């Protein structure tokens, strides 16, 4: 579907991000300050308000200066025929494509609008051009070539001149779902305070323990006072859960309780659920905005440049790596092994490794490796120990799952949301490494540290707190302007992954000096995946054709390709 767009907010100046780190030429240019777009001082005055905006709201990009390594990503081709009805793609000159977000007026043409109360707000009314221009969009790709198409664009996030809710009309609820992530409480706090302080909303409720709380728990009244200090705590004050998504029961409760803004904080699974809720709301013709705030400590949600909590996780991982290094250095042939989170995407492991400089080997799910024989991991460890007498290994939890499955009989298990339960790669590696050196009669010591739950349970750091505020405020502005803009299906059909053919991974390899472990076949496959992922956007006609042939396998194809 095209519906839910994610809108990590742009910064106040309208600067936005570059390509994901490691996008080749673009990334290098960006590092040198080249190719950075700036929307300039300010926009021309916005056109007079219309009764019903043709579109607006929300793509937000963040400045490369603050968040140097990520990019927004969307995938309009990964939509089933059933969902194609919700897609809003329009085209302009020179290959300009607007990948738009749904709006009340798509199905409720006569909803009244009101002047945005922010124009009288003492804090905001003095800000030059505070409201975003209706036509503002943000390109998916920042670096382009002279003759390249203008490509996919998203709505820019931020407050609109007119809103679709009267002052006392808003009844908002907030829910957190899925695994913990630093910053959840900050987002909750900023949603409550932002709604209250910017739009005078007094009816705000927390849904307890994830989606099932919509229909099985009392709603918790939230006020700026009750959430005042929560950003200093880890976890989520609302509670969270996996499983329990019953669309009909959820929307029945939304309807019965007169909720008209639903803020949903969660990862890829949660956003699939948000999309189902949006569709049901639209089917029932309800005036309800669904605003998704993407949460993923693994940074595996495509479309956003970086998820909140990621910086905090990378920073906290340093403490575990430092400990592993101390342990390794203090023993003869000492090995420190640290497991970090990352089911399918090794971003935390990659960034924590690059930041640390003490790591000799980083293993991630995206880059296959092998244990035995020439060029294998065990041989590399032996060489490193002989050279340095110690070594530090960082492994992402999703790495090497195929190797474990080959060596021990396991049955595939899932959590309540249907996510595959992973086997402990850290423990498995520890045994394998010990066995190897025993067979070689070489003394060594290995210390395995698993800080995963400790990392995700801490409060967010300063930079993530600022980011959480931008996300929360953008969600509020988008909802007030009548949009439903969670990431939805596109997020679920494409996953953000480390590109092992990019410069960032090459940087890591040169920093650790580890072998790449890749065969030519692995490299060919990775290059082909990149080629497909970077395919130019399909024009609307082609999109429908794709949607058609894609229906039977909707949302299962990786990268949304067919
Ligand atoms: N395809 C789906 N449709 C509807 N709800 C879903 C879907 N996938 C996951 N969910 C719901 O989203 C919530 C969180 O999903 P989960 O995968 O556990 O975490 P995350 O959102 O962090 O990825 C759960 O309540 C789950 O039931
Ligand atoms: O909390 P659980 O159920 O033990 O799940 C652990 C998983 O949660 C995560 O921290 C986050 O995953 P989600 O974003 O899907 O919630 C993963 O890194 C990890 O594999
Ligand atoms: Mg998930």
Could you please describe the fold and organization of this structure?
Its EC number is 2.7.1.11. This protein has 562 residues and is of the alpha/beta class. The chain has 2 domains: 84-307 and 461-481, Rossmann fold (3-Layer(aba) Sandwich), CATH 3.40.50; 310-411 and 418-458 and 497-526, Phosphofructokinase domain (Rossmann fold, 3-Layer(aba) Sandwich). It contains 17 helices and 15 strands. It has helices at 25-31, 81-84, 184-199, 213-216, 247-256, 268-283, 310-329, 347-356, 377-388, 401-407, 425-439, 452-456, 462-480, 488-493, 503-512, 520-533, 540-550; strands spanning 88-91, 96-100, 114-115, 137-139, 151-155, 162-163, 171-176, 203-206, 220-221, 261-266, 289-294, 334-340, 361-363, 390-396, 445-449. The strands form 4 sheets. The protein has a 5-stranded mixed β-sheet with strand order 9-8-7-10-11, with helices on both faces. Strand 10, helix 6 and strand 11 form a beta-alpha-beta unit. It is elongated. The two termini are 15 Å apart. The protein binds adenosine-5'-diphosphate, 1,6-di-O-phosphono-beta-D-fructofuranose (FBP) and magnesium ion.
């Amino acid at each position: 579907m095209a519906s839910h767009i994610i809108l990590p907010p742009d910064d106040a100046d309208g600067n936005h991000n570059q390509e994901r780190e490691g996008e080749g030429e673009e990334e290098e240019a960006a590092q040198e300050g080249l190719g950075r777009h700036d929307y300039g001082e300010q926009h021309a005055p916005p056109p007079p308000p219309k009764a019903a905006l043709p579109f607006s709201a929300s793509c937000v990009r963040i400045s490369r200066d603050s968040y140097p390594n990520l990019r927004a990503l969307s995938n309009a081709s990964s939509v089933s025929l059933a969902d194609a009805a919700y897609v809003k793609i329009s085209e302009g000159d020179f290959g300009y494509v607007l990948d738009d977000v749904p709006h009340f007026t798509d199905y409720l043409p006569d909803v009244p609008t009101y002047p945005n109360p922010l124009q009288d707000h003492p804090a905001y009314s003095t800000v030059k051009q505070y409201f975003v221009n209706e036509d503002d969009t943000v390109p998916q790709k920042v670096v382009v070539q002279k003759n390249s198409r203008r490509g996919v664009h998203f709505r820019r996030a931020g407050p609109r001149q007119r809103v679709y809710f009267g002052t006392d009309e808003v009844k908002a609820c907030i829910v957190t779902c899925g695994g913990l992530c630093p910053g959840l409480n900050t987002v909750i706090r900023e949603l409550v305070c932002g709604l209250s302080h910017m739009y005078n909303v007094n009816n705000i409720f927390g849904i307890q323990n994830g989606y099932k709380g919509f229909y099985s728990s009392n709603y918790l009244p939230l006020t700026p006072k009750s959430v005042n200090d929560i950003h200093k705590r880890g976890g989520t004050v609302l509670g969270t859960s996996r499983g329990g998504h019953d669309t009909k029961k959820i929307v029945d409760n939304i309807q019965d309780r007169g909720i008209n803004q639903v803020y949903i904080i969660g990862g890829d699974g949660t956003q699939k659920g948000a999309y189902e809720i949006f569709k049901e709301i639209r089917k029932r013709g309800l005036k309800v905005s669904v605003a998704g705030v993407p949460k993923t400590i693994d940074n595996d949600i495509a479309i956003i440049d970086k998820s909140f909590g990621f910086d905090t996780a990378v920073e906290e991982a340093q403490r575990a790596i430092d400990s592993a290094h101390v342990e390794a250095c203090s023993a003869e042939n000492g090995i420190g092994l640290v497991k970090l989170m990352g089911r399918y995407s090794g971003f935390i492991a990659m960034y924590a490794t690059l930041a640390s400089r003490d790591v000799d080997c980083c293993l991630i799910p995206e880059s296959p490796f092998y244990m035995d024989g020439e060029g294998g991991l065990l041989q590399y460890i032996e060489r490193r120990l002989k050279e340095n007498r110690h070594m530090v290994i960082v492994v992402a939890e999703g790495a090497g799952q195929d190797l474990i499955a080959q060596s021990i009989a396991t049955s595939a298990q899932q959590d309540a949301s249907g996510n595959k339960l992973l086997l402990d790669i850290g423990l498995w590696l520890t045994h394998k490494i010990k066995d190897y050196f025993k067979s070689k009669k070489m003394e060594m010591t290995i210390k395995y540290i698993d800080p995963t739950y400790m990392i995700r349970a801490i409060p967010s750091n300063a930079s993530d707190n600022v980011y959480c505020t931008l996300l929360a405020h953008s969600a509020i502005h988008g909802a007030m302007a009548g949009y439903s803009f969670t990431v939805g299906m596109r997020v679920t059909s494409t996953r953000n992954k480390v590109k092992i053919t990019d410069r960032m991974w090459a940087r890591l390899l040169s920093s650790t000096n580890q072998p790449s472990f890749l065969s030519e076949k692995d490299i060919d496959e990775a290059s082909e995946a990149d080629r497909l992922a970077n395919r130019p956007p399909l024009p609307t006609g082609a999109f429908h054709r794709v949607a058609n042939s894609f229906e039977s396998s909707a949302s299962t194809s990786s990268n949304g390709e067919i």
